[in-house]
Write a structure and sequence with these properties.
Chain lengths: 146, 146
DNA sequence: GTATTCTTGAGCAATTTGCTCTACTATGGC
DNA sequence: GCCATAGTAGAGCAAATTGCTCAAGAATAC
């Protein structure tokens, strides 16, 4: 169970967009530079996220990408499922298993299933807007000490 | 973030051992047959789990594998970390990232770190003994209806 | 119509996954 | 001591995934 650079890069990119939500499209090159993501790879991830309905993209000069929904409606769960795919056994990933003793097999399947639900609940609790607020709070507290 | 067959097979094998805890060694061939795991692959996973300190193994006739600790002290977290390795960015997996804007970079790092802690807490709540109890309860309730 | 920006798909080296197979080592029992 | 039984170790291997790059194409603003 590992989050690869896809999920990591993807979250960073969406966070970048969230901070500029409502201010028009943001170009992938700017995202790449600010967030330290290889541009060609980022472009791929952006396409994946557009197909997942997380962002919208405009071509041509002054084009770019923007969140398809407001930052408080996009959760870590949305990002990770879009980019990393299914999270645990029991969501179609491992249907090819040779079943053993049925009671044991079913019990373990249920454990994965419940675990997945719990983890998704956890992931659903954090939104892009939460991240933006955290950054603002942090910037604010720095101001006090200056 | 995906649990591969390693974690799945590994949990099934340990669950098999947990149900026979205290009754001497269990041979890998029996585990493989009961749990529907390819024997050669299972043998590899058993070695990994032994190196992680989850099981102990005895060679020779009447040899086999057994839990190194009691089932209530072995959690899903133990199993998954032993077999799947680090769970999320921020545990050494992705140190090679080119950092972007430092505030954003650090904030996302923290998010992964907190998330990992929360997921590990979740995983730590379920032990092998919990699974055994669940199976016994289930068997018990079936008895009532016969 | 041209510069800009996203889109699509190919390609590719490195790593991981999910195995198998062979050889080796340890141990219990005769 | 021999031998059958088990685990141990490591090589090998096809297929999939990761983490990219690159080139060609399509849409749009000016």
């Amino acid at each position: 169970m590992r989050i690869s650079s896809k999920g990591d890069y993807g979250l960073r990119a969406l966070f970048d967009l969230a901070q500029r939500y409502g201010k028009g499209p943001v170009q992938s090159e700017d995202i790449a530079r600010r967030q330290g993501i290889p541009i060609n790879y980022l472009n791929q991830l952006l396409i994946t996220m557009r197909r997942a309905g997380l962002i919208e993209s405009l071509r041509g000069p002054q084009g770019g990408h923007m969140l398809a929904r407001s930052p408080e409606t996009i959760t870590l769960r949305d990002v990770l499922i879009a980019l990393e795919g299914p999270l645990l056994p029991g969501d179609g990933t491992r249907e090819d298993l040779i079943p053993g003793v049925p009671e044991d097999h079913d019990l373990i399947d249920e454990v994965w299933s419940e675990l997945r639900a719990q983890i998704e609940t956890l992931l659903s609790r954090t939104t892009l807007d939460d991240l933006c607020q955290r950054k603002r709070q942090r910037a604010g507290s720095v101001m006090y000490y200056i």
